[in-house]
Every structure is written in structure tokens, then in C-alpha cells.
Design a protein that fits this description.
mainly alpha, two-stranded antiparallel ribbon, 2 strands
Length: about 140
């Protein structure tokens, strides 16, 4: 019975990982992330789901506001997921935990950590995407209250 439970767990976890690969796929990654993320086998790219109808992205997430925050920040996978070249591994698990919204293995998500290239700042650095630490870009993330 114990062996059967172990086999079932392996099959369930393996199925989850396969499903993650099917939805996330393998693509070229930006240089800063490339060193942190393992390359996926090229064959998986044949199974990448690129149709919006077949991708079920997580719901939007609003981060808790810090004391000095100019307004709430709501993250949307819809605006960050590249349907042409999907790759969830650009952010997960290096910068954000998969099953814990708003949590990062790099520590608290603050403007200081972003300026260090952590969390959102890994891409929002003025090179890959707009610079999150530039005061002219505050309203790109922070909504007015």
C-alpha cells in the first residue's frame, strides 16, 4: 500500500511538472535570467500552447501596500505572459514562488530590492522593460487610491 501511495505521488507530481512545461515551454531567455534558470529540452517547445483559449493564467494579484507606497500594485499575468514565446521560467521560481502569490525567494518585494535587480527589477530595469525604479514610471505599477 505504501509503494502504491508513493507511485501515485510521483505520477501526480510528474503530471504537474509536465503540465507546467506544456504551458510554459522553452524559449530564449533574457540574459540576466538565463544564468539563474536551467534550459529546457528543445523537444518541449513542440508542445507549447500558444493559443489564448488554451492557457489558463492565474488571477490578478494585488500586493499589500508598504508604508511609503504611493498606491496599490496589481500584477497581471495577462500583461506579462508572452503568448508568442511563453516561458514561465523567466520569473518562476527564481524571482517569484509559483504557488505563493506575492512571495519571492529573493526576499521582500520593495523598491530597494528592485533596484538591486531582484523581484520585478530583474526585468523592469530599463533594459528588458521599463525601469520600475524611475520616478517617472510610478503610475505604470502603482494605481491611485
Amino acid at each position: 500500500m505504501k509503494k502504491l501511495k508513493t507511485v501515485c505521488k510521483v505520477l501526480i507530481i510528474g503530471g504537474f511538472l509536465l503540465a507546467s512545461d506544456i504551458h510554459c515551454g522553452a524559449t530564449k531567455q533574457p540574459a540576466p535570467v538565463l544564468a539563474q534558470v536551467q534550459q529546457r529540452p528543445a523537444k518541449l517547445s513542440d508542445f507549447v500552447i500558444k493559443s489564448r483559449e488554451n492557457v489558463h493564467l492565474p488571477a490578478d494579484y494585488t500586493f499589500p501596500m508598504g508604508e511609503d507606497s504611493p498606491g496599490p500594485v496589481t500584477f497581471s499575468h495577462e500583461s506579462h505572459y508572452n503568448f508568442e514565446e511563453p516561458n514561465c521560467r523567466n520569473c518562476h521560481p527564481a524571482h517569484f514562488k509559483v504557488l505563493e502569490p506575492g512571495q519571492s525567494p529573493e526576499g521582500p518585494i520593495t523598491m530597494d530590492t528592485m533596484s538591486e535587480g531582484k523581484n520585478c527589477g530583474a526585468c523592469h530595469n530599463g533594459k528588458l522593460a521599463f525601469d520600475a525604479t524611475d520616478e517617472d514610471n510610478c503610475t505604470a505599477c502603482h494605481q491611485e487610491q
